[in-house]
Structures are given as structure tokens and as C-alpha cells.
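Lab notebook, design round three. We kept the backbone fixed and only want residue identities now. Task for the bench partner: fill in a sequence for the structure below.
Input C-alpha cells:
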């Protein structure tokens, strides 16, 4: 993110794309920004599958999670809401999806989420990189 980015959650920015550096777009599309969370999983602060942790300033999301009981789940690297819209869905819909996961937790659902996450990240990243490299000079990064 650029230094001039307001200190608010991304979904509260009117045009979040103007604050993201070119290299940041690539890192996000490849989900490389999630690698540090593997340490949180090893430490026991996170799990692979669960609701994404809320940012410290996402009071609206935390309130909805408490109302739905989803706050009792351990935060995860990926989850049902991430493969069903990620940040493109409203917070209410995100919490509904997290509640669905909580109510239907199973090994089958976890495997399905893991498979869909890998395929979504891989195919979106592949499509992004192919189109981006064709349209831009790789030295721009």
C-alpha cells in the first residue's frame, strides 16, 4: 500500500485500488501476503480453515460476528466466505457464510474449502499474470 493510504479497512475506502502499489497487486493476486500467517498456524493462533481474522478497526464486522456467534471460531487462513466472494460481498453476507461454515463444519467441508481455495488462487493468479505480463512491461515492477 502507498504511504498516503488512510488507516481504515480496505472495504471502507472509496477507491482502494488507487492505494495499492503494482508489486502489491501481484503479491495479493498470488496470495503471497498470506505466507506469514503460516507462523500463526504453527503457533496455534490460527487454523487453516475458519473465518478470516478481522482487522483491529473492523468494528462493524466484529459486531456482526458476535451477534452470529461466529466470533467463537478460531480465525483461519481461508474459509467458506473467502471462496464465495472474499471482499466482493457485503459484511452481512460474509458473516452469513461464516455462520453456515460454523453450523456445518466437517472434514468434507474443510477439504472442499481447501481444494476450492487452491484452485481459485491458482487460476485467478494464472489468468492475472498472463494478462498482466502481456499488457505491461515486467520491468515496471
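Proposed sequence:
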Amino acid at each position: 500500500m502507498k504511504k498516503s493510504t488512510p488507516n481504515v479497512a480496505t472495504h471502507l475506502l472509496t477507491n482502494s485500488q488507487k492505494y495499492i502499489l503494482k508489486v502489491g497487486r501481484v503479491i495479493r493476486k498470488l496470495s503471497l501476503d498470506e505466507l506469514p500467517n503460516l507462523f500463526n498456524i504453527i503457533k496455534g493462533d490460527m487454523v487453516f480453515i475458519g473465518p478470516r481474522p478481522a482487522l483491529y478497526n473492523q468494528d462493524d464486522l466484529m459486531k456482526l460476528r458476535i451477534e452470529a456467534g461466529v466470533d467463537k471460531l478460531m480465525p483461519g487462513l481461508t474459509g467458506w466466505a473467502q471462496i464465495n466472494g472474499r471482499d466482493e460481498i457485503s459484511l452481512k453476507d460474509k458473516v452469513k457464510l461464516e455462520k453456515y461454515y460454523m453450523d456445518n463444519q466437517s472434514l468434507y467441508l474443510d477439504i472442499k474449502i481447501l481444494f476450492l481455495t487452491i484452485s481459485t488462487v491458482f487460476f485467478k493468479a494464472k489468468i492475472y499474470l498472463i494478462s498482466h505480463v502481456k499488457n505491461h512491461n515486467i520491468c515496471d515492477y
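Keep this in mind before ordering anything: Residues 18-140 form one domain.
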